[in-house]
Every structure is written in C-alpha cells, then in structure tokens.
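Hey,

The postdoc asked me to send both predictions to you directly instead of through the lab channel. I've kept everything plain text so nothing gets mangled by the mail client. Protein one:
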Amino acid sequence: MKYYSTNHKAPLATLKDAVIRGLAPDKGLYMPESIPTLPESFFKDLHKKSLPEIGFTVANGLFGDDVEKTALKKLTEETLNFEIPLVKLSEQVYSLELFHGPTCAFKDVGGRFMARMLAYFTQNNDKDIYVLTATSGDTGSAVASGFYNVPGIKVIILYPKGKVSHIQEQQLTTHGKNITALEIDGTFDDCQKLVKEAFNNEQLRNDFMLTSANSINLARFLPQSFYYYHAVAQLGEDAKDIVFSVPSGNFGNLTGGLFAWTSGLAIKRFIAATNVNDIVPEYLESGEFNPRPSIKTLANAMDVGNPSNFARMLDLFKNDHDKMAAFITGYTLDDEGIKSYLKAIYEKHNYIADPHGAIGYAALEKLLQPNETGIFLETAHPAKFIDTTEEVLGKKIDIPERLELYLKKKKEAVELSADFQSFQDYFYSLK
C-alpha cells in the first residue's frame, strides 16, 4: 500500500518511508491510500478472538503488503502481551483500562508497536536514527520504554517544564543509554512545534536521520485502533449501539477509533472529550478551527492547543464539517468538573479513575442516550496522577511496582528554551 500526505503536495510513500520519515515533505501527515474493510467473518467471530489475534488481523489488513507475515505476527504479539480489560461500571457504562502495560498508559500499545516496526525497517542501517518525541506526559514514557536499548536508535524526548506529573517526569528522565530527555521552558505545543521545525529544517534532515514517535507517525497511532475491536469483542456478540467516549489531546486515539469504524467495526458514534483545551469540540459546534496556546490542567496529557491529528480527522471526513459533527460529539470539562467526577465515579461505582478517564466518564453521564452502551477510555493508571487522586478521594492510592521503580531513580534532563536555534545547537552537540 502507498501513503499520501494530508496536504496532498508530496509524492506517495511506501510504508517504510512513511514510518522512517514521520512527517511528509509538505508538512502533512501520512494516510493510507485506502482503509481495508475487514471481512464479515472477522466481525462475526470477534468475541472469540484474543487481543493478539485481533491485532494481527487488523495489522495484516493495513500493513500485510509491506511487512513479512511472520515478522508482523511476532511484532504484534510482543506489542500486545498485556491485558486491556473492559470493566463494567453499570448496565450502560464500561471502562476500557488501557494502563496495564509497562508504563501504565494507553500509549504503550502505539509506542511498542512503532519501536518494533522501526527496528524491522532499519535493521540493516549503518547510520543511527534519531527519534524525536514531544510529550505532554505519557507519550514520552511509552516511547522511552518501547525504544530503550534498541540498537541504532536514539530517542530525544521533549517535555514542558513543570507541566507533567512527578511520576511522568521520572518515567521520562531516568532511562539513560539511548534515551535523552529535554526539559523545554514552554508548553507542549512549543515542544511539538520544535519537533515539526526539525523535520522541516533541510540542514538537520541532511545531517541526521530523523523520525518521530508522536502520533504524527502512522506506526504510532494506527495500532491504537486494535483495542477498539477488543473492547467490542469483550461486550459479546450481541453488542450494539456502542458509543466510545475518548479523552482527547492530540487526537491520535480518537483517530485510531475512526480507522476501526471505517474498517467495519460497529460503532454508533464517538464523543471527543476534552479538558478546557476545547479546540475540536469548538470546531464541531461552530465549524471554525481556532488553534491557540494550551492551558495547563489536571488532565495534563490533554493540554494541547493545536492537535496534529485533526488533519487526519478532516481527511477521513473529506473536510465535511456536518458529517463529522453528526458522528462525533464534543464535550468539555474544567478542573473543578474533573475533581467532581473523580469523586462521583468512586462514590457511585467504587472505581478509581484518573483525571483523563474522569472526563471520558463525565461525557457519557451527560450525553449517553437510553439503550446505548457507553465505553470510556481509561487512558492511564490513577497513580500517575497521585497528588490529584489522593487529594480528591481522601484515600491512599497504591502505586504499581513498575511505577515505583522509576521513583527510586535519579532524574537526568537537559534544560532548553523553546527557541529553535537552541534546540538545533543541542542537536549538533551530539555529533
């Protein structure tokens, strides 16, 4: 399969070129020429299939022409070697727990898949590849874990100073070896802008092999479609009128769900649930897309003022606002609302959510219709936001051992301004 740019001004690319390049030469995001419709037999027997089986079938439909099947099966099985359970809170509402991977966040799926795919495509390279990643919290830790000690790949993670939780920062800054953390004096949008400027800088591209592990890279966001199928599978063969409420920042997760729907998965509609960085809900309401500087919130992984994957969403709906707004409903919740719903979920269901999941749950509380089945994505373990959850709930939150280990390590990060020249100068200091 070939891949085109959302800006439609770049040549078609192979999967290998699209994954290694990350961003298209015309600054657009890569999209597959077609999204294969999966066979009816696959959906009929979906409830009988394991997560790795689902992942391989979906991956084979998307990537089967470009990756040898045995390698793709191994890649998928290694990526999906942890549980993603669907937890029933009520007759209508379920939580899809995406935090059972090594870094306790949903981005483990995309990060691990991309690391293995990039290693597959570059196994015979004689030049190091530099993976650039901007993170608002969880992307960086998943990428660091996925790429740690992978030969021939060096990872540089940019995160906004003072705008990630303590545990998240420890996950970003304590790996060492081929993982470097840059603490940027700015916002996530500043970090993301630096990454994009690097890709658009001809001198840097000539002197370094660059790629990205943000969801601008299709090998990062496409695997995030896997768990939508798995969620529906866990509901059983009679599942219908399914609504997914997706806590959204850069919108890679929701776009992955749209790919699953486009391939034939029976999803009635989506809710784009955001914090006060409500650029996409505003667009869905008004038809106007107005990116702006992000605002810091308790749900920091969603503090994004110019979501990259919105370009893919527009592309999927052929820039038709009315069609998108008919299928995706926007929802916004501020910090006081987050606290209120964290408490409400615990009191009503004896369930501890994280701030991002609380927004997804709140959207279902407000927008789910009778006879619909609502699934909200619980995107990170509540212990990653322990200060907020313990304060709101008034109880101690257990920290998983795999997170506890990061707290015992020493932070190592390079402080930089949000100025591109400083970033470029740092890069050349690596040579």
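Protein two:
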Amino acid sequence: MAVIKLSRKGWNNLIIFAMLIMIFLFNGLHHKLGGVDEPVGPQPILPEQSYILALEYPGVRIERIGTSWRIQAEQLQSVEQAQLENIIAAWQNTQVDLGAKTSASPMLVATLSLAGEAQPWVYVLYPDGQQYQLFDRQQQRWLLLSKQQAQQLFIQLEG
C-alpha cells in the first residue's frame, strides 16, 4: 500500500478543494430535497403587508392623500370615496390562481406604487375567453382572473 506524502501546502489545497466540493454538493442537495418552490393554490396579487401609495390606469390616477383617496381622471369624476377604497382593497386582498401565458393582445395596464419599493409594480390584463390573464411584470408570473375579479381591479371594465 502506497503512502501519499504531501507537503503542508499540498494538504491545505486538498482541504480547500474538499470543502468546495462539499459546499457544491450541499447546495445542490438542498434544491433536490426542498423540491420546487413554486407556490400552489390561490396567491395574493401583491406581496403581503404591501401599502399602496398610488394606482394608475391609462388616463386615471388614484393616489393616497392622508387617510383618504383622490382620483384624477377626465371621464371618471363621479367616483365616490367608498368605490376608491373598494378598488384598493381588491388589489390588496384578491387571491388568484397561477395562470398561463396567452397570445391575446393586452387590454389594460395598471401601475401600482408601493411604499418601500423603488420601482412601480406593473400589471397587464389580457382577455382569455370568459376569463382574464394578468401578467405581473415585477415577478414575471401569469395570474388567472375571473371576470368579476377583473372588474373589481380595473374600473374601466365596469358596465
């Protein structure tokens, strides 16, 4: 049996490489044992505990003024405070299932400014038969909306 004689530098290199191999193995093992981190079931549209500062649609801006909401729009001047609060609550509380990419043309865009976020969150609404697909640009995910949910989130769809 041959005995391997290594210098101190050789042993140090061997230990370093052995540690690197163990790190790579444990990192890969973590991903295999943990499974896919893809959420299952209904998901909130916005991150939990998010605080909406402003919501914009084409030609419409809803913004927080103190504890109330103000709307700036040419065609929607008769919207009441309770309706604005319902729209904001819908964005914060609606739970939806994950959807699938659609080839339809986009209908509407909603841009939300959230407290603590440097960039606004952009959502694009697509028709999909009797339902709608909502593309979340921030998280690069597709969400499935019912017609009722889409009408709650996008005031332009009412009527």
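Summary for protein two, as requested: The two ends are 87 Å apart (CA to CA).

Thanks,
C.
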